[in-house]
Structure formats: structure tokens, C-alpha cells
Amino acid sequence: MQRIRAFAALSEQVFFSDHARTRMLERDLTDVEVIRVLKLGEIDGQPWRENEGDDMACKVVMRHPGGRVLAVVTIIITHQERLLVKTVEWEDLR
After folding, report:
1. CA 3-7-8 angle, 5° bins
2. From first to last of its 94 residues, what are the pLDDT tens digits of the chain?
3. Given CB 3.0 to 4.6 Å as the disulfide criterion, which of 27, 42, 62, 77 pairs with 37?
């Protein structure tokens, strides 16, 4: 989580996949809200290796204002020293 928070503190090191952008539009979420989850949230479950390489992925969750839990699936792109937001999702069934 320390590494994710450090990247998120410098928003120019956080990139969004096209899929994440689409989901953000569908869920009425902004870049600021997603980066806030990366700065203040906690990892849910165990991190995993992405694409059989050195890149690590995890789900970061945080209770959103209004009570809903927002999850951000992110990948630490090790060789480029940046974060890639893969997708965003609500964890509840509302």
C-alpha cells in the first residue's frame, strides 16, 4: 500500500485503461475520486502478478461518501514506475 500511495501522491504517475475510463463514466466517477481511493484505501485480498511478469496487481477499496464501497483494481508497472488503473467497480449490489 505504501508504494501505491506514493504513486498516487504524484497523479502524473497514475494512468487509466480505456476499460477503466468507460467504467468511470458508467458509474459517474472522476479521476479525483479514484485517486482518492488509491491514496486512502486499503488492499482487499492478496496481490497477484499480472501478465506473468514483474508487475503486481491488487484491488484497493474504500467506503465512498454515501456508504458505498468503491474498488479500484490497479497494476504497479514496475519497469515504468507508474500505476495503471485497470478498472473501477462498486462492491455492493445497489
Report:
1. 115
2. 999 999 999 888 999 999 999 999 999 999 999 999 999 999 999 999 987 778 999 999 999 877 899 999 999 998 888 999 999 999 976 6
3. 62
The whole domain housing 69 covers 2-90
Q: Exposed (0-12), middle (13-18) or buried (19+): which is 90, by Cβ within 10 Å?
A: middle
